[in-house]
From TrEMBL:
Signal sequence bounds: none
Membrane spanning residue stretches: none
Keyword match Transport: no
Full protein name: Betaine-aldehyde dehydrogenase
UniProt xrefs under InterPro entries: Ald_DH/histidinol_DH, Ald_DH_C, Ald_DH_CS_CYS, Ald_DH_CS_GLU, Ald_DH_N, Aldehyde_DH_dom
Subunit structure: Homotetramer.
Organism: Vulcanisaeta souniana JCM 11219
Top-level taxon of origin: Archaea
Molecular function in Gene Ontology: oxidoreductase activity, acting on the aldehyde or oxo group of donors, NAD or NADP as acceptor
């Protein structure tokens, strides 16, 4: 990438040194004070503890001061959620029309406020403003979709051969612990909260500490929409303390977690003690398989979007490009050309394609993998990495790196990096491509690029992934599903399947005969002697 070109496209953001941040008609006073949301009220920590969130594009700037929940705060939140659910307070569990109206209204509020909310997402997450705006609207769509399902949770009935009836009821699972990540803070939260509320559950939500302001926007939208007190509470704090206590709490019925796989395994162990139901949306090391008949231009655009969107900080990102040897050189050269021209800059610049990584720790992790790839001797098709000079000196800016001819058994091809690093791996045959694609512990997404529909479907059926795109990447229709095979998780989000995660299924067996002589009774007792 041309550093000079980037400077031409990035204006002088002296505004970041001011106590306000402006974008268009919006001005945000910083730092924002983010409080806990418990039993319908915004409250301070009972222990008086707070933590701060920096601007990843200008780490000297504190953009939020956040209340950290204590054990007492957590217990109060869970008790209020438990009371609403167990007592059907406000008719929350039974009145699906109330839930429908609130979810629709929440979607409406998020849409109306999307331009303003996008500014907070960009500031705390580093997501470019154009992407942040689309991100907020996508969250609104999720709330709207599940609003439309709130009055359509249907059971079933079966008339048995003996004339009796088996009734199948679908009931809300109860109090839900929702733990959401920072990379797509609003949509990932909406995928948990919206279906949980649509079914009549109550929710204790622990957002990622990196993105507290996004969470505040969602709970304020819910409150404005008329959400009754205690239905949703929001707590902040470290996963090792607040998160652990929430997951293990005996009054929590279901745990929905999105994050990296190591933490997911720990949550699974913690939930097992109480035999809690869980939903885990975890990591990925996702392949894009490029066959010899693929459109190079179409494929490159899809890979750049699917691999470098949100600076590669996406569980479903294409991080391995498997390419047929006959088009290998052409694909790699074009991919490097397009990725090189991406504009890396301040998130509130409309010209920015890629913002900073979310934190110093994430930057160090990504740079560590880049260093490993170079020391391992893999060919560097696009040499990027840590940027410096101008605004780059105050943020966690890393430009894309493309490694070529990567050993599919290496760390670079096996481990989730969560950054703008792509490993290219050539293959000769269709079977070899499938074997390489499936050779990791993950199975979240995959992409196939070919003009042959039969080949596309044949390969798609053999890939171990929860979502397979054909001639596309990282598109997530709300009506579809999201979730993975193997160590990419348990359960599914989005669509109808995402609603089922928050439902218990109950059978009620009804005898219609009134007979004292039932065949199944006779197997253990002599009826005629009673």
């Amino acid at each position: 990438m041309s550093t000079n070109r980037q400077y031409l496209l990035i204006t002088d953001y002296t505004l970041v040194l001011m106590p306000t941040v402006s974008y268009g008609k919006f001005t945000l006073e910083i730092p924002v004070r983010v409080k806990l949301f418990i039993d319908g009220e915004e409250v301070s920590s009972s222990k008086g503890k707070t933590f701060t969130r920096e601007n990843p594009a200008h780490f000297d700037q504190t953009i939020a001061v956040v209340e950290e929940a204590s054990t007492d705060d957590l217990n109060k939140a869970i008790d209020s959620a438990r009371e609403v659910f167990d007592k059907d307070k406000y008719g929350w569990v039974t009145n699906y029309r109330q839930r429908l109206r609130i979810l629709y209204k929440t979607a409406e509020i998020l849409r109306e406020e999307a331009d303003r909310i996008a500014v907070t997402v960009a500031l705390e997450n580093g997501m470019p403003i154009r992407q942040a705006r689309a991100h907020v609207l996508a969250a609104a769509e999720v709330f709207e979709f599940y609003a439309g399902l709130a009055d359509k949770v249907y059971g079933d009935s079966i008339v048995l051969s003996n004339g009796n009836v088996s009734l199948i009821f679908k009931e809300p699972v109860g109090v839900v612990a929702a733990v959401s990540p920072w990379n797509f803070p609003m949509t990932q939260a909406a995928r948990k909260i919206a279906p949980a509320l649509a079914t009549g559950c109550t929710v204790i939500w622990k957002p990622a500490s990196y993105t507290p302001m996004s969470a505040m926007e969602i709970y304020r939208a819910l409150a404005r929409a008329g959400l009754p007190k205690g239905v949703v509470s929001v707590i902040y704090g470290p996963g090792a303390t607040v998160g652990n206590d929430l997951v293990k709490h005996p009054k929590v019925d279901y745990v929905s977690f999105t994050g990296e796989t190591t933490t997911g395994k720990l949550i699974m162990q913690q939930a097992a003690a109480g035999v809690k139901r869980i939903g885990l949306e975890l990591g990925g090391k996702n392949p894009g398989a490029v066959f010899d008949d693929a459109s190079i231009e179409e494929t490159v655009r899809a890979i750049v979007f699917g691999g470098l969107r949100n600076a590669g900080q996406a569980c479903g990102a294409i991080s391995r490009v498997l390419v047929h040897e006959s088009v290998h050189e052409k694909l790699v050269n074009r991919l490097a050309e397009v990725a090189k021209d991406l504009v890396i800059g301040y998130p509130l610049d409309d010209n920015t394609d890629m913002g900073p990584l979310v934190s110093k720790a994430q930057e160090e992790k990504v740079l560590g993998y880049i260093d490993f790839g170079k020391k391992a001797g893999f060919k560097v098709a696009l040499d990027g990495g840590k940027l410096s000079g101008g605004i780059y000196d105050k943020g966690y800016f890393v430009s894309p790196v493309i490694f070529d001819n990567v050993d599919p058994r290496s760390r670079l091809a096996q481990e989730e990096i969560f950054g703008p690093v792509i490993a290219v791996i050539p293959f000769r045959t269709e079977q070899e491509a499938i074997e390489i694609a499936n050779s990791v512990i993950y199975g979240l997404t995959a992409s196939i690029f070919t003009k042959d529909p039969a080949k596309a479907l044949r390969v798609a059926r053999k890939l171990q992934a929860g979502t397979v795109w054909i001639n596309d990447a990282y598109t997530q229709p709300t009506e579809g599903i999201w979730g993975g095979y193997k160590q990419s998780g348990i359960g599914r989000e989005l669509g109808l399947y995402g609603l089922e995660e928050f439902l218990e299924i109950k059978q009620v067996y009804v005898d219609t005969t009134g007979s004292l002589d039932r065949p199944h009774w006779r197997t253990v007792m002599k009826i005629d002697k009673l």
